Amino acid sequence: MQLRKVEALAASWIEIVYTATVTGTNNPSQAVLWSVLGNTSSSTRMNDQGVLSVGAEEKGNLTIYATPYLNNSVHGEKAVTAAGG
After folding, report:
1. Between 12 and 40, where is the model more confident?
2. Within 13 Å and on the Cβ side, how many CA atoms surround 37?
3. Per-residue pLDDT for 17 more than 60?
4. Which sign, positive or negative, has the C-alpha torsion 76, 66, 14, 39?
5. Which residue in 81, 77, 71 sits closest to 4, CA to CA?
6. What pLDDT, in 10s, does the model give residues 24-67?
7. Among residues 23, 29, 18, which one has the least CA distance to residue 1?
């Protein structure tokens, strides 16, 4: 499982687009469940398309997770540091 950042857009908050590649035999499904942990702002969230929205007041370490729908025993993760506030 691999995660990578695609692009960042700046405004009063930041949105970062992530993609996940599920690897394995027999051409596994690329569908993943996205989540973010460590956020303190209700404005910071991850959507179903891999877009991380970081609230302007968010500060600290976040972890992005992508878990394949068909195999929740593995996941990819990426550390992000928010410098808002």
Report:
1. 40
2. 6
3. yes
4. negative
5. 77
6. 899 999 999 999 999 999 999 999 999 999 988 888 899 999 99
7. 23
> Measured between alpha carbons, how far is 72 from 2 in angstroms, rounded to an integer?
15
For residue 35, give the nearest of 58, 69, 60 by alpha carbon: 69
Q: Hey, what are 48's tokens?
A: 């179903």
Q: Which two tokens stand for residue 50?
A: 């891999």
Dihedral class, residue 44 (left if φ above 0, else alpha if ψ from -120 to 50, else beta): beta
pLDDT number for residue 13? 66
Instruction: List the strands of the sheet with 45-46, edge to edge.
Output: 2-10, 14-21, 51-54, 45-46
Which tokens hold the place of 71? Answer: 């195999």
Range 2-25 average pLDDT: 71
